[in-house]
Specification:
The protein is mainly alpha-helical. 79% of the residues lie in helices and 0% in strands. The longest helix is centred in the last third of the chain and has 32 residues.
Length: 425
């Protein structure tokens, strides 16, 4: 009895647990209890499953399914292109029917499509299932946009930054089981990976069901059915965002190949450089977004991001030909500066995506915005391979200069996009 009493006394009390939770909320580790924390939890679960699968998908399709690398690349490319087409129409449906319900439907579709991958054994079946998966994924992101806007509260920039930190943390945690599955390299392990990701979509849908239903915002008189596609000012901002979004392929595509084939840095440093980027995003994204709370501040953040991207890419490019310690030092500095640009760009991108879109069409506009970044992400590997890997050190200045040019023109472009639209009679 005494032992039992001692064990009970050692358990933390409800008040103690409450104090810990309050401390975590006060220091920005947790959001306050409510819908925003629920959405952050759903986003974390979703990215945890997706992160595990994404990091090992190519290995699964080649080692477990038995498809050649060329067919895997072609099928995944086609899936990415098809997925881009669903964002705008599904976003429009979410605006009219309610985003929570549509988001849950897309998550369920993702779970079914992911589970179907265990039946894939031919190229055409693989391509069809991948296209279905990408369609559901793109549609889900478009439907999620109005939810983020509707639950953002009084400090929307901080909330969106918190979400980005949460999904990056989930992605980095997902790298551990992904590495384990690849190391085991068995059919059973790969099946567990695929089915686990399917379950994560169902778990995300279960958590999303706890969110309040957001009623559609009635469109103003005279608003077109596809107003996002007719808003040429927003389309211009979307195009500029798409160009800036190519920065994401620098660290995951160009940098690993540059380290291995063009520098004397050790091969294991590929993982370290990406880890530095991930840690910085998780720790600093909320702080970097603190002062980005308007269209003007978002445009200034993009301008600073352009300078950071140019400096970071230049440092990485100059690592070629240096001894190992010099290459490691320059690449670390380059990755750090590049990540600062990424933090500023993400904060500005989130702000412009939602602020420049009317309240009644957040889902449709979110689909348009994702189309721009998604389209350039398809083209980015080829462009970076030509500029950074074939042209050598000077080639790293080309995308850096492009990012800087975009950053410099964004403030004026945003002021132009903010001007009142002419009234349509």
């Amino acid at each position: 009895m005494a032992d039992a009493a001692n064990r009970v006394s050692e358990e933390p009390s409800d008040e103690s647990r409450g104090d810990k939770a309050s401390w975590l909320v006060a220091h920005g580790v947790l959001l306050e209890r409510g819908p925003r924390r629920t959405l952050a939890t759903a986003s974390f679960i979703n990215m945890l499953g997706s992160g595990v699968f994404t990091l090992s998908a190519a290995v699964f399709f080649t080692r477990s399914v038995g498809l050649p690398v060329s067919q895997v690349g072609l099928g995944m490319g086609l899936g990415a292109l098809v997925g881009l087409l669903s964002g705008v129409p599904v976003g429009g449906i979410a605006d009219r029917r309610g985003p929570r319900e549509i988001y849950m439907l897309t998550l369920t579709a993702q779970a079914v499509a992911m589970a179907m991958l265990v039946l894939v054994h031919t190229f055409w079946l693989f391509t069809a299932v991948v296209c279905l998966t990408e369609l559901a994924s793109s549609a889900g992101q478009a439907a999620r946009g109005p939810i983020v806007r509707g639950l953002a509260g009084e400090r929307p920039a901080r909330f969106r930054a918190y979400l980005r930190s949460a999904v990056n943390l989930a992605s980095s945690i997902g790298a551990l089981p992904a590495a384990l599955v690849v190391q085991l390299d068995t059919h059973a392990a790969y099946l567990c990976l695929v089915l686990g990701n399917a379950l994560s979509f169902l778990a995300t849908a279960f958590v999303v069901a706890r969110l309040p239903s957001l009623p559609p915002v009635p469109p103003p008189a005279g608003a077109g059915r596809w107003s996002a596609l007719e808003d040429y000012r927003y389309m211009v901002v979307t195009a500029l965002d798409g160009i800036m979004a190519m920065h994401g392929s620098v660290l995951v595509f160009a940098l690993p190949l540059w380290i291995v084939g063009h520098t004397h840095a050790p091969r294991w440093f590929v993982g370290t450089s990406v880890l530095v980027n991930t840690i910085m995003v998780v720790v600093l994204q909320v702080r970097a977004s603190r002062d980005v709370d308007s269209n003007a501040s978002a445009a200034r953040a993009w301008r600073r991001a352009g300078w950071a991207f140019l400096a970071g890419l230049a440092l990485i490019g100059f690592a070629s030909g240096l001894p190992a310690w010099g290459a490691v030092l320059l690449i670390l500095l380059g990755v750090g500066v590049h990540t600062l640009g990424e933090l500023l760009y993400a904060a500005g991108s989130f702000e412009l995506r939602y602020n420049l879109a009317p309240a009644h069409a957040q889902g449709q506009y979110s689909g348009v915005f994702r189309f721009g970044s998604g389209l350039t992400s398809v083209a980015a590997p080829s462009l970076l391979a030509w500029a950074c890997l074939k042209a050598g050190t000077p080639g790293w200045l080309l995308p850096g200069g492009l990012f800087l040019c975009v950053g410099l023109v964004v403030p004026r472009t945003v002021r132009w996009a903010e001007r009142p639209r002419p009234v349509q009679l």
